[in-house]
Structure formats: C-alpha cells, structure tokens
Amino acid sequence: MVDQTLKGMLVLVAAMLWSLSGNNLRAADGGPQDADTLRKQVEQLRKEVEGRRAPVADSAADRALAAKYGPNAGVTTKTGKLEIRGLVQVWYYGYQHDNRGAFDGANGGAVFDTNTAGDNSSFRIRRTELRFTMEVHENVTAVVRIDPAQEAASFPAFPDNQGNSGLYKVFKTAPNVSPEFEAANVAGMGSAAAVERLQRGMGSVPRQLEFAYVNYHGVVPHHDFQVGQFLPKIGEEGPRSNAELDFAERSMVGLLGGEYEMGLQMHGTWCDDRLQYWLGAFDASGGYFQYERNRADTNSDKDFLAAIMGRPLWKNETWGSLELGYTFEGGVHGKDGTSDPINNPVNGVNSTPTAAMRHAAWGSYYPGGPVKGWWFRGEWQFIQDRPEPGQVVNLAGAGGTDFTLAPGGAATAASSPKAIGIQGYYLTTAYKISDSVFADSAPSWLKPWEFLFRYEELQNVWVVNTMAANPTDDIWAFKTRVYTSGINYYIKGHDAKIQANYCVVRDPHGSRLEDALGMRNVNNDAFVVNFQVAF
C-alpha cells in the first residue's frame, strides 16, 4: 500500500513539472529541445528516488491478511503447496438378535458356534481420515492419508456380522468365525479369552496408513504415473472416495475392490475424461482373499492390472450419462519350494504357486429428460485364488490340523485347500430430488433427500465338501444375499450428510445347508445411521 502511494506521488510531481515546464517552454525560444531535456531529467529523478527508497515494513493490515484462516486460506510450508482434507464418519448400528452362528449344531450337533459377541448395537467411529496432498513441483505431487479409526478390530462386519474377527471381514471362513467357535476349536483358547480378544480388538495388524504415493503428471500428454500404496482401479465402487458412497458402507464386492495395494499404476485420459484406462503392477500381498496392506510381498512375482472405462453418453440433457468399465488383474501367488505349508511355511502362506485372477465389470446410467434424478448402477466381480491354510472350515473334522474340536474333533480347517473361484454382484437404483426435474418446484424441506435400494450377493461362506473323494481338494461356496433400503439427507452435498440404511440379510443361502452340513441361516438383519462431515 505504501509502495503504491509513493509511485503515485512521483507520477503526480512529474506531471506537475511537465505542465509547468510546458507552459514556460511555449514562451521560450527552442522550446521542443528544452522540453525533451526536462523529460529526461524527470525520468532520471524518478529512478534515483526509487533506488534510494528504504524498504517499508508491512502494515498491521498486511500482517493480518497474511495470517488469515478459513476457507481457501493458504498453508505455510517449507516448499510447494499443501492441501489438507479430512473425513469423519460416526455410526450407530444394530443387528437382529440371534445368538446362534451359521455353524452352530452342524455335523450332528458337534459344532458349537454362537453369535452373541456380534449382534450388539453400538456407536462406532467408522472413519477418521486425514489426507495431505503436497504439490512440490508442477509435475510432482505426493499424497499421504491415514485413518486411525482403522485400528479398531472389535466391531462386527457390515452388513453381515458373521465375519467378525478377521482382517478381511467379507468372508465367513475359519479366521472369521465367532470367538465361541474359536474357543471350542482352537487348542489352548478358552472361551473367555477368545471373547475378550475380539471385544478389545487385540491382535490387529497395523492398518492406519492408507495412501502413501507419489504422482507424476503433466510430462507425458494425457497421462499420469503413480507409485506407492493406494487403491488400484478394481471396479468402480472400491476405488471411489469414502465420502461419496451411496450407502453407509460399500457393497460386499465393493469391499473386495477397496483394499490398498503397493505398486505402480499408469493412468491415461482422453476426450475430456470420457475415455480412460489404467495399467499397473502390484504386490498383492496375502492374495485376493486375505489382503494385508503395508507389508512385504510374499513372493517375487507381481500382479498385472488392466482397466478401461468409457462414457458413450455424458451430461446430455436428453439422454443423460452412461459409464461402462472393466478391470482384469492376475498373477502367480504363493512361492516355489516345500509343499508343506504347516511345518515349512513361506511368509505364513501356502508355498504352492497358484494362478490367481479377478475380473470386475461395472456400469452406471443417469437418465436425462423427464426422468432425470433417477439413476442406476451395478457391478460384478469374479475372483479365483487359493485360500490360506486354515481358512476353509471342514465340518467333518478331516484333512487338517489347524483346528481341533473338543468333542471328538468334529470340525477342523482344511490345511491345503485348492484354488476356488467365487463371484458376486450388486444392483442399485435411486432417486435424488435435487437432481430431478422437480428440483426447482419442490419445497425446500424435500430437496435434500435421496431414496435408494440395493440388491447384492456374494459367495462368502466357505466349507469343505465332505462328499468329495478328497475333502481338502473341494470347497462349497455358499452365497449371502442382502437387500438394502436407504435414505440420504444432504445438508451440504457429500461434505455434510446423514445416511440411514436397513439391510435384510440372508446368510448363508443354499440348498445343501441342512441336507449335507446341518448349517443354519442366521437372523442378522442390520440397521445403521451414518453421520458424516468431509472437509
């Protein structure tokens, strides 16, 4: 401010001198030559004043502006530009009370499996993300995201509380059984100790670090390159921002594509983002059925990923928007060497090499015209991999030594299960008032509402086929079906919203449950309310 004032005064003085000199010179002989001389003298004077002027200290107003805080305010860093973002999700949930688990009473009543530790209603801090994005160069960005809420290991899975103690909670397998089942089957594990371990979250691996990657962009036209730990492009719902989920939680197949991997990924985009593709190489540590983030790879092979997404229609007022996509990822899991994974394990996993793969296909359609506001989305996945030793329950008690049931060894876990292929999908439809043709005419209290419904199923309950010649080489995969009704209330878009979901759960579902295995369908319908703020 002071600097501008001084310059203005110099210009004003120069103009006055010019005006005076002009009037005098018009009356003198040789006026034009003297006028040029005077102009040069004034310019020289201005330069001398500028050079001698001492630096002016910032005013109180300048210091106040530099220290301001609030929306769009700058963050002081050593170098570059730092952006800080966050997400808080607080849940209240409840499950239908059924104290008997899916395996309870199987094999003629020899198996003891209850559900009392997983059907309690509770508040829960679902997510507490802090994301730091640092632009250190016009072509280089670093991203780190942590979520301390991921350290919690005592909460049941959602929407199916049967997988309630493992890292990967989508599946009801031997590591994810109830603590009562574990106490009855694991040698040396008492019932009280098993329940306490679950309810106190003991034994959890580190899970806070989610994103830690460097992105290179703006060098190769239409492309960027990312290396570190992040979400690969597995389907559509898995890599989507947690703040922008349609329901309080992802679908079961969405959770399968929402696990973090370490590796390298190239992303290309053309035609104003209407055509995009991804190519990548990843560790895939632990395999597709038991992801373990931020850990060393279990072999030297890498999994390769290829994904493509196209938008034949996009933001068309008449026809709306259509998006279609497909992902393939595959590689070799396990490691050459001993075939005895119990006595001679390799990094804790089966040492037998296995060709693993997965496919994901998705589509979404947002119509235009008179039905604008009504939208559809769906996704399908197929996964083939070898479960870890001890992951598949054997209700006949043969073929493994990982579990020893107290009454006669009637339930164990397969020590060397073969590779298994499973699949699942979801279909969602919804109507959002604020995006509809009634957005302008609807009353203000109705505009923030969105009404949703989702149907999904996944083959997530695994049991050894007791009728096979070699039970350890064959697995039955039973499906879980979930019908979810939802309501979203947008206070400020996805930055502040409330979501309420009711899930009708059919777990597990299959014709062989009673006839061959004596398993039962668990009554575990669920209700959840999500309170969310993103910033």
From the coordinates shown, what is the CATH architecture? Beta Barrel
Structural class: alpha+beta
Q: Note the run of SSEs as H and E.
A: HHHEHEEHHEEHEEEEEEEEEEEEHE
Distance between the termini: 34 Å
CATH superfamily: Porin
Integer average pLDDT:
79
User: What is the CATH T-level topology?
Assistant: Porin
Q: Which percent bin holds the helix content?
A: 10-25%
Give the percentage of residues in beta strands: 35-45%
Main beta sheet strand tally, sense and closure: 16 strands, antiparallel, barrel
Taking pLDDT < 50 over at least 5 consecutive residues as the criterion, the unreliable ranges are: 20-29, 187-191, 398-410
In order across it, which strands form the biggest sheet? 1-2-3-4-5-6-7-8-9-10-11-14-15-16-17-18
Number of strands: 18
* Distinct helical segment count: 8
Describe the structure concisely:
The chain has 535 residues and is α+β, with helices and mostly antiparallel strands. It has helices at 2-25, 31-52, 60-66, 106-109, 179-185, 191-199, 252-256, 512-517, and strands spanning 81-95, 122-137, 140-146, 209-217, 223-230, 261-270, 275-282, 303-316, 320-333, 354-366, 374-385, 393-394, 412-413, 420-432, 449-464, 475-492, 496-509, 526-534.
